[in-house]
Q: What sequence folds into this?
């Protein structure tokens, strides 16, 4: 399993600040690389999840693109099967699709999260991913 | 100096295809991570430059964001000083700004290039960066 400090040291971007648990299960960190503005309409963040940590279910009105830079994790769209994602994977999440992403139980996950078309509105955060939902793949 | 094969092996994304020299000086490679479409309005490419390779001067109508993932290079906006860029740097290039980017003479440069607001129009390619312009910093 990747250790916190080792993964941090190898990483491209700073781990940043620990995210509050309002919209996340487990511990996750965010380093904003590009703040939202009306010039780029494209906030970008680097997100690090410890093993088993994950987002709540959520929706981006302008879509989202994930570039996985380290580790292994999961991505799921509501009503579809969980997909396993690894370093080097690109995940394209269309607008208005309810989804979650996070680390697998045996690895950290680090991804760059790109939110294009941010002028269409903020992230809509929904309910947590339950252990039952999470364990479908990992259990 | 980074060697071609070593850098390739370490890299996050595939090096992709060699770019034609219409808009580049020296050898550069492109791997498209996200193709342009009207869902994301945000094509994304991974670009690798050998030492001294660089783009022509060019303009993005919707702006561009560079995430430097390996090596060392240069970024310059027309009429301003050249900036040195390294792994981990984020470069925000506003819309309609004439600029170029590329590797330093002693290192490869690899960056993710994000083109938000692509509905505003294609890249406008201009003249090559001359050796005189390039050597201002490296000579």
A:
């Amino acid at each position: 399993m990747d250790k916190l400090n080792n993964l941090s040291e190898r990483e491209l971007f700073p781990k940043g600040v620990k995210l509050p648990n309002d919209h996340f299960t487990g511990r996750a960190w965010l380093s904003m690389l590009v703040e939202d503005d009306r010039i780029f309409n494209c906030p970008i963040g680097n997100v690090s999840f410890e093993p088993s940590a994950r987002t709540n279910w959520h929706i981006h009105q302008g879509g989202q693109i994930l570039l996985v830079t380290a580790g292994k994790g999961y991505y799921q769209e509501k009503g579809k099967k969980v997909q396993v994602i690894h370093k080097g994977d690109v995940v394209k999440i269309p607008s208005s699709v309810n989804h979650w992403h996070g680390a697998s139980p045996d690895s950290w996950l680090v991804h760059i999260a790109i939110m294009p078309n941010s002028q269409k509105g903020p992230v809509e955060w929904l309910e947590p991913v339950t252990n039952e939902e999470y364990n479908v793949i990992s259990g």
